[in-house]
User: Fold this.
Amino acid sequence: MSIIVFGSINIDLVATAPRLPLGGETLLGEDFFQVSGGKGANQAVALAKLGIHVQMVGRVGADNFGVELVNNLQASGVQTSNVLVDETVSSGVAIITVSQSGENQIVVIPGANGRVNHEDVQRLSHLIPEATALLLQLEVPITAVVAAAKAARSANIKVILDPAPAQSDLPAELYPLVDIITPNEVEAGQLVGFAVDGEETAAKAAEILLQRGVKCAIVKLGAKGVFCATLQEKFFVPAFGVHVVDTVAAGDAFNGGLAAALFAGIPLHQAVVWGAAAGALAATKPGAQTSLPDRLTFDAFLKQKDKS
Assistant:
């Protein structure tokens, strides 16, 4: 059995500079690096590093970035036979400038991610008989996301949706197709129309999401912790205390840890703890996929925290 991740695959091109450039200004930078990213690919790698058999469904372009992206997924243990190489467009690219103060400017070119459509959903459908869960995000066209959720729902496969990037106008038909939705504070606020900044407002947001049809709402509150609600139970999981270096991909690590626990048959409360632990570990290292913990590191972290 496996978990399917349906979503985006990007290359991040990152430049660091003393400050962000003004309009029309040429600024001498300090450093440059490129890393594999995309929320879909990040979540697939998070699962694979935790020892889960995972199938990635998505698209890359017929360019050098596409080759690198697929190779990196394979090196992490992700099955990529259902990643389509689209000859008509570039791979997805995020061009990022980061200042010394931590501010950033990002231009995202969806490229092949923007071409994900019903053909990709058909490839996904062939994998469903051998799957236990489907992970979705919002970096590919929403029509494809809804169609993928419908395919999983019709086969009684668990659907976990990370509603990122934040959107305020998710189709109403999507909510009842979702078993677990996992917004962070910003995303939850966009979905429900008011600021979510702590446990109390997270509880109100979760209640609204349940009313819209999701079976479980998990609101990630960063360093504050995680609030979880179903129709049967509500609980709060405090954040793990770690030295935060970079929160990029921490949310993707959370979803990987959560799904890995559920795959192993672990109850919801402990699965949320797994998600929080994976997210905390990812925040202790820079980068996206490079920060995602392997199973040995993850198990040691949980064991240590259980003793403390």
Summary: The mean pLDDT is 93. The CA atoms of residues 182 and 218 lie 5 Å apart.
